[in-house]
Input
Amino acid sequence: MKNEYALLDSGHGRKLERFGKIILDRPCAQAVWNPNTPTLWKSADAFFTRKDGLQWRGRDKLPESWKATINDVTLKLSTTDFGHLGVFPETRDMWSWITQTLKDEAPKRKTPLKFLNLFAYSGGATLAAAKGGAHCCHVDASKGMVQWARQNAELNGLAEHPIRWIVDDVNKFLTREIKRGNRYDGILLDPPSFGRGKGGELYKIEHALLETLKLVKRVLSDRPCFVYLTSHTPGFTPIVLDNLLQQLLPSGQTECGEMLLTGEDNAFPVPSGTWSRWTLG
Output
């Protein structure tokens, strides 16, 4: 497996990561410990801070964009004004799980598996599912992010793969899919703590997630493969997500845990979100 990402070190509220040839130093509030390799931090190509406003230091020395392959998925990366890059590397183990699970399930089916990615961002999971042979549907309310995801599909040689690219509010999209009779064998959703839909619709996870999950259940196929729920919202612990999926889908089985940034052997793993997944079993 090709992987050009690594967590190099963390501590003092920051994280040092390598994305391809670029090393970045960014905030990480949960890293309350001391760095393990203080001298390594001098190797950072750029530094992002939220003190006195959002700002990069050294950004002018970076390319406008660059490529990195993370768990066999090649992505275009670029520094944004909010400190994001176009990937959340803590999700990379999930990508590999999705690819392998779909590959294992495909021979048991007469037709291609269908995968739905909601709040889909730059498409890492969509492309992982496509590499697993699934026909995909990628939904995000941001036109810019959907375009970014399409560029990533081209980088992976998947521009012609059956992928529907949808710019829409997730709940409105799901409501229409129910009416159209479209069903999916695998579904991933990573709802934001707070967001806006295509038409400015307000999405607050504590109020909207239950409705989203009810709609998700109605677009599952008769023989679903999995539902994967992830979150970066404080308070939405692995058990919270697991309880939600167990209540939504009482048959089958669930697992849950923390999403982790990992890398060098001497770098502490950094918790960076939570996950739960349901499988038919």
